[in-house]
Q: What sequence folds into this?
């Protein structure tokens, strides 16, 4: 152990003398480390964003979707035809433990005020939905029973359609039909979210009953269920399943809790993140090969130095230590620079885009761990080659 400081000093001195070569060797590691930290931190930020959006539904709200994801994989049929009906929501409301239900229909189309349009998602629902979530209103009120040509818009839609002016009482066109704005929901947090347009506080809501009159064959895409705080969601789901199964096949629906929704989204994000991380790891491999190549060249060029050290008492282990330390220092230096670069990029993304990356302790640990591994693995061959050199043969190279 006492030889380590001496070997560390020798390694640092050698790197300082060949600093240009060292910088070029560490550049590949810097690129690879930056890519991995950026991807994982962005994925972590997106997961936190998704979690916030899902949790905003409410702690005691379940969701019925028109498909089954029990196997933990995405069902492409969920985006197609829905077999759910308004009558299903009515029947589910009768189950003990259920406080209220509200059907959801994704309307499609858009909303406009004259020549101005907003890119918000349009949803038809019933007044019960607003009692489930207790939405905060910047202006006006939620939809109420009896509302026909009224709508509630989000703060993003208000900004796009009316600027800084009031939206209350203003006339808008939704799919060429006139509506009067009676409320504007407020959620400053979701306005800066990557999913702000799809956040519940930034949707445009129209009366479900009115759209049903105009489009009798419209489908119901989701059913929101508010349950009593004392009810156990998993136990209640069995009763809800039984009610829906009286009319539908079990592959045509599924009742999900927040944990189910988050688990499915996290699994998809995790697969995508690891796929991209694997691709970007190619840069780390290239950087590691670069370190190994440069150090093998360095071993041949420094034969005299190796020979002198061995003839003055240095052991094979000392030579091996010196060169493996050089490889680790190169790799870790590239990792540190890459981490600093990633931090700057993440700060810029958070300040100027809706993406909010999160660099956490485990991500920093992952970056350093990977860089350490690259340094050790790709430094082994040069270090072993240097340690095995015969001192007499090395001195002859002079």
A:
């Amino acid at each position: 152990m006492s030889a380590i400081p001496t070997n560390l000093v020798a390694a640092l001195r050698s790197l300082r003398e060949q600093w240009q070569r060292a910088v070029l060797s560490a550049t590949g590691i810097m690129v690879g480390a930056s890519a991995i930290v950026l991807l994982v931190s962005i994925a972590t930020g997106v997961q936190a964003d998704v979690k916030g959006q899902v949790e905003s539904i409410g702690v005691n709200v379940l969701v019925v979707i028109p498909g089954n994801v029990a196997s933990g994989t995405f069902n492409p049929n969920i985006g197609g035809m829905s077999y759910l009906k308004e009558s299903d929501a009515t029947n589910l409301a009768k189950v003990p433990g259920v406080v209220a239900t509200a059907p959801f229909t994704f309307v499609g189309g858009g909303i406009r005020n004259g020549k101005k349009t907003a890119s918000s998602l349009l949803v038809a629902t019933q007044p019960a939905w607003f009692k489930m979530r207790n939405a905060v209103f910047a202006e006006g009120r939620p939809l109420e029973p009896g509302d026909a040509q009224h709508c509630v818009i989000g703060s993003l839609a208000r900004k796009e359609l009316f600027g800084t002016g009031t939206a209350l009482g203003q006339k808008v066109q939704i799919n060429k039909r006139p509506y009067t704005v009676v409320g504007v929901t407020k959620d400053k947090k979701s306005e800066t979210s990557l999913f702000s347009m799809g956040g519940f506080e930034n949707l445009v809501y129209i009366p479900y009953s009115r759209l049903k009159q105009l489009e009798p064959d419209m489908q119901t895409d989701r059913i929101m269920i508010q349950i009593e705080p004392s009810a156990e969601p998993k136990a209640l789901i069995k009763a809800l399943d039984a009610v829906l199964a009286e009319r539908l096949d079990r592959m045509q629906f599924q009742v999900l809790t927040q944990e189910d929704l988050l688990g499915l989204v996290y699994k998809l994000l995790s697969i995508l993140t690891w796929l991209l991380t694997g691709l970007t790891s190619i840069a780390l491999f290239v950087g590691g090969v670069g370190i190994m190549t440069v150090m093998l060249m360095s071993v041949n060029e420094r034969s005299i130095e190796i020979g002198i050290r061995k003839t003055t008492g240095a052991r094979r282990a000392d030579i091996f230590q010196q060169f493996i330390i050089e490889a680790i220092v190169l790799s870790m230096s590239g990792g540190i620079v890459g981490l600093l670069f990633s931090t700057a990029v993440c700060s810029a993304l958070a300040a100027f885009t809706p993406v909010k990356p999160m660099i956490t302790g485990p991500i920093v640990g992952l970056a350093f761990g990977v860089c350490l591994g690259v340094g050790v693995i790709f430094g082994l061959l040069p270090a072993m080659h240097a340690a095995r050199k015969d001192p007499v043969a090395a001195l002859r190279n002079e």
